[in-house]
């Protein structure tokens, strides 16, 4: 029968000590926390890209509606008298049938349906159509739920679609400071007018 040799003082040690394992766990934990932070940042930017994609689709939607209703094109234009979200278009029950709606009523119904979709797909979303020589202006007051300044000067024949939304609704609800309102504008040219 053979005996196992006993470790002699000053001899080579084999295996890990508790301190080495503790240091390894701490290093791995810090690495995992870094990955978790990276994942959260990635999700936030992915959501922002999704919202911007929704905005682009919404702008294309109202442009298609306007092109389908050229006779009522002027009725799509934003009027400073109707600034609140509730006044951005009017639901017209008779416009759900193609033969019982005027071009102007169809435009108001299109604006209403479009802004309802803006609100459903974009946090705090609202949009307008106007003529503007400087399309990159205008302010939407989130607290008042209204367009406080459209920035539409009607000085140019170029049609513009403007859409506002809150990019980080969670931050806007938790923080008492001004929410992060984003703005998108695209110029359509003259629409054949």
What do the pLDDT scores average to? Answer: 80
Low-confidence stretches: none
Biggest pleated sheet: 3 strands, antiparallel
N-end to C-end Cα span: 106 Å
> Tell me, what's the shape?
elongated
What structural class results from the helix and strand content? alpha+beta
Strand order of the largest sheet: 1-4-5
Give me the Rg, rounded.
Answer: 29 Å
Give a written overview of the molecule.
By secondary structure, the protein is α+β, with helices and mostly antiparallel strands. It has one domain (19-189). The protein has 3 helices and 5 strands. It has helices spanning 18-68, 103-121, 169-174, and strands spanning 126-131, 139-141, 146-149, 159-166, 181-189. The protein has a 3-stranded antiparallel sheet with strand order 1-4-5, with helices on one face. Helix 1 (18-68) packs antiparallel against helix 2. It starts with 17 loop residues before the first helix and ends with a strand.
Which tags fit this structure?
single chain; 193 residues; alpha+beta; three-stranded antiparallel sheet; two-stranded antiparallel sheet; 3 helices; 39% helix
Give a short summary of the structure.
With 193 residues, the chain is an alpha+beta fold. The chain is 39% helix and 16% strand.
Topology:
Elements: H1 18-68, H2 103-121, E1 126-131, E2 139-141, E3 146-149, E4 159-166, H3 169-174, E5 181-189
Antiparallel strand pairs: 1-4, 2-3, 4-5
């Amino acid at each position: 029968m053979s005996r196992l040799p006993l470790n002699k003082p000053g001899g080579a040690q084999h295996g890990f000590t508790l301190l080495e394992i503790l240091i390894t766990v701490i290093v791995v934990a810090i690495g995992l926390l870094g990955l978790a932070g990276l994942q959260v940042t990635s999700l936030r930017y992915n959501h922002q890209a999704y919202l911007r994609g929704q905005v682009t689709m919404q702008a294309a939607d109202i442009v298609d509606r306007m092109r389908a209703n050229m006779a009522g094109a002027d009725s799509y234009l934003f009027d400073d008298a109707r600034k609140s979200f509730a006044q951005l278009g009017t639901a017209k029950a008779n416009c759900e049938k193609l033969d019982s709606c005027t071009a102007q009523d169809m435009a108001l119904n299109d604006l209403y349906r479009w802004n309802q979709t803006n609100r459903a797909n974009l946090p705090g979303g609202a949009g307008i159509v106007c003529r503007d020589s400087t399309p990159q202006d205008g302010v939407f007051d989130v607290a008042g739920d209204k367009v406080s300044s459209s920035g539409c000067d009607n000085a140019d024949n170029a049609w513009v679609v403007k859409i506002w939304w809150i990019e980080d609704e969670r931050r806007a609800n938790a923080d008492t400071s001004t929410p992060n309102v984003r703005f998108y504008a695209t110029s359509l040219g003259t629409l054949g007018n």
